[in-house]
Amino acid sequence: MKTLTAPDIYGNWATLLLPINADESIDYGRLEEELNFLIRAGVNGLYSNGTAGEFHTQTEDEFDQIHERVAAYCEAANLPYQIGASHMSFQISLGRIRRSVAFKPSAFQVILADWFPLQESEMIVCLEHLARVADPIGLVLYNPPHAKRRLTPAQISTLKKAVPALVGVKVAGGDDAWYAEMRAHCADLSVFIPGHQLATGFSQGAAGAYSNVACLHPVGAQRWYDLMRVDLPRALELEKRIREFFDSWISPYVTQHGYPNGAADKLLSVIGGWARIGSRLRLPYRWIDETEAVRLRDIAARLIPEILCIEGG
């Protein structure tokens, strides 16, 4: 696969969700069905081992089995893909990159070592070593809201200057002032924001999203991104309804009831009904019962039929 530089990383990227059996094993058959659907959906790219990929729960053998499949399917379809090599342990992240660099993915997603918050010099050391093992494949830094150090655009720019192999970031976004700061400091990076904010982010200069909307339905999410490129006002109107659905019906599971973010992402896939992923997370994390999807599907169909690919929406 072609190694991507910052300008090459854009659009609607779908996450690979991890199907978990009742005995805690990974269902590789359902995983392959999911890969097939995502490829047919025509998304701009696919990435593995984000939060909803439950990278933090995998053994190293499981990591290898997942990515043998990811690489084979994406290479056969010529679909850009990023391997999530993240782990709370820096040493495990290094090992994950070292074992999968031969696949030649489009990029590697990584997090900063996560047990103690890193100082700036330590962040640079962390990324330098990861980049050295990944070379010539670039790094995308995943810096979610729950990271021990939530970075500003200026801090991200400092890391980019120190580690040129950093080609992109996955961040939480922000207000107009944040976007202005991002444009000033991160013009040489691919900046990805949350999927349900993508039309606003697109209008402010963000390159794309590693998308929670694609969890709901990858085809609908891709159509929405394509709409942004030709009719931004209509895409922004649709975003208002997407945000209403997420803010009123999905986010409370996390903010009020304390479920992990990955539980919400998996519930979205059940609501969308596009693959047999299921809502189960690996222990000890709680997941949202699939019966919740029944009422939420009706709400989503009323608010955002375009995303669910309902005819006439």
Query: Looking at this structure, what is the CATH superfamily?
Result: Aldolase class I
Shape by Cα distribution = globular
Number-wise, the strands total: 8
Q: What fold name goes in the CATH topology slot? A: TIM Barrel
Unreliable stretches covering 5 or more consecutive residues: none
Mean pLDDT reading: 96
In the CATH classification, which architecture applies?
Alpha-Beta Barrel
Number of domains: 1
Distance between the termini: 36 Å
Order of helices and strands: EHEHEHEHEHEHEHEHHHHH
Question: What percent of the residues sit in helical stretches (DSSP H or I)?
Answer: 40-55%
The main sheet orders its strands as 1-2-3-4-5-6-7-8
Q: Treating each run of at least 4 consecutive H or I residues as one helix, how many helices?
A: 12
Strand coverage percent: 5-15%
- Tell me about the biggest sheet? 8 strands, parallel, barrel
Gyration radius, in Å: 18 Å
Structural class, by secondary structure, is: alpha/beta
CATH class: Alpha Beta
Descriptive overview:
With 313 residues, the protein is α/β, with parallel strands linked by helices. It has a single domain (6-303), classed as TIM Barrel. Helix content is 48%, strand content 10%. It has an eight-stranded parallel barrel, surrounded by six helices. Helix 1 (28-40) links the parallel strand 1 and strand 2. Helix 9 (218-230) runs antiparallel to helix 10 (232-255). The radius of gyration is 18 Å and the shape is globular. The two termini are 36 Å apart. The model has no long low-confidence stretch (mean pLDDT 96).
